[in-house]
Amino acid sequence: MTVKGSKLVWGAAVLLLLFASLPLLANAGEDKNKGNDKQPAPIEVVEEKPPTNPVVLPGQVKENAMYNLRTLEEENPLFKDMLLNKYQDRVFVVVKDPSISFEKSLADVTQEYGPEWASILKDDFRDIYLTIRAMEKGFVEYNEETKEGITSISGKVNQGITKVVVKTEKGNQVEVKKFTAQHTFCISLPAAAAGELITLQSYDFDKMVEEVKLRIKNAPPNVENAIVYSLAQYSTSHNEMVFKGKVKNNVDKVRVTFGTVSKEIPMEKSWSYISSYEWRLPSDGKGMPKEAFVEAIVNGNIVDSKTVEVVNLWGNLENKWNSLMGTEPEPATTPTPVIVPAPQEDDKSEKERKKEEKEREKKEKEERKKNKKSEREEDDDD
User: Fold this and answer.
1) Is residue 198 part of a domain?
2) Domain span at 110
């Protein structure tokens, strides 16, 4: 073999060895990486803790949540002012510091440090928080009063109460959502029965804070003008008497007496201040009384009464109704009768008149004779 041929053989062998070693080097790199996976470097995981001083918008106030005072001043001062004003009776100031234990109501803090309490505390402490304590009582006071047929429910609520619900035993319900600047309220109801329980509920938005029961005391009945008006009508077409009218709502029942017949009509309480009654009594109209007697009764006592004239439904009812309503009836359309004056009776009799006529005629005749005689005498002298 020549030298040139030997060099070619040697070069081919070197290339063969080089290509054969490449997979080994690749495997070696993979093995090295596998070794690193078995022993990974430690990674520090930082777990984010929920903040203890969340800043929320009005309407999202959470009771017993901790609100950082500095964060509120920087990020949401309006919300901070809302907390201090609207919830001032329930706001507590909390200072977190190893050297002190500080947790006082806003009222005590203001009294101790004055209106600049926040600046004073921030000079000495960094972690100052505001928290809203849960409301324990919703009502400061409440009472009832029944007067002139109307029951009034009034009271005062704690600051932060947004609604008061008033319920009666009969299922009626009233919601109060507006209060005065002093957090007072007052509603009026038709007169409630003595001993009836009224339920009052105070709410902080949708959360009920307190429920109380209020018992209606026995109030003296209103005896003045308990009967508003009454009518007694006879219908010839139906052959019946109709008694109807209106009374004040505090009246328990109405008693109508017509001749020897009497009827007690229970009155149903309503939310209106006036209740109506009606009683129909069959009658042929013969020999019936001309009046009916109506009585209003409260707690078994007669508090008002009236005598009512019976009117014919097709006769003078329209005039009675117009008189009751204060309107004038239409003028009558009957023709005006022709009045013929009666002859005046002469004081002298017929006989006397004739006698006077004869005397007058006689005198006239004599006068004529005298005149003729005097004429003749004048002619003779000529």
Assistant:
1) yes
2) 66-132
CA 218 to chain centre: 24
Report the length, in residues, of the chain.
382
First-to-last alpha carbon distance for the chain, in angstroms, is 238
Question: Domain end: 132, 157, 188, which one?
Answer: 132
pTM of the entire predicted model: 0.37
pLDDT of residue 29 exceeding 60: no
Give the E-state strand segments of the chain in sequence order. 66-68, 91-97, 100-105, 128-132, 139-147, 150-157, 163-167, 173-176, 184-190, 197-204, 207-215, 227-235, 240-248, 253-258, 261-266, 274-282, 291-298, 301-312
103 occurs within a structural domain? yes
Two tokens, residue 2: 């020549």
Residue 318 φ/ψ region, left for φ over 0, alpha for ψ in the -120 to 50 degree band, beta for the rest:
alpha
Asked if residue 2 belongs to a domain, the reply is no
Q: How far apart are CA 92 and CA 191, in angstroms?
A: 44
**CATH code for the domain of 157:** 2.60.40.10
- Same domain, yes or no, for 158 and 107? no
Largest alpha-carbon pair distance within the chain?
Answer: 239
Q: Is 357 exposed, middle or buried (0-12, 13-18, 19+ CB in 10 A)?
A: exposed
d(CA 199, CA 188): 15
Residue 47 has pLDDT above 50, yes or no: no
Half-sphere exposure of 163 (CA within 13 A, CB side): 10
Is 332 within the bounds of a domain?
no
Considering the domain architecture, whether residues 78 and 167 belong to the same structural domain is answered as no
* Same domain membership, residue 234 and residue 190: no
* 231 lies in the same domain as 320: yes
Pairing of strands 163-167, 173-176: antiparallel
pLDDT digit string (tens) for 78-92? Answer: 888 888 887 888 889
In angstroms, rounded to a whole number, what is the distance separating the alpha carbons of residues 106 and 86?
Answer: 12
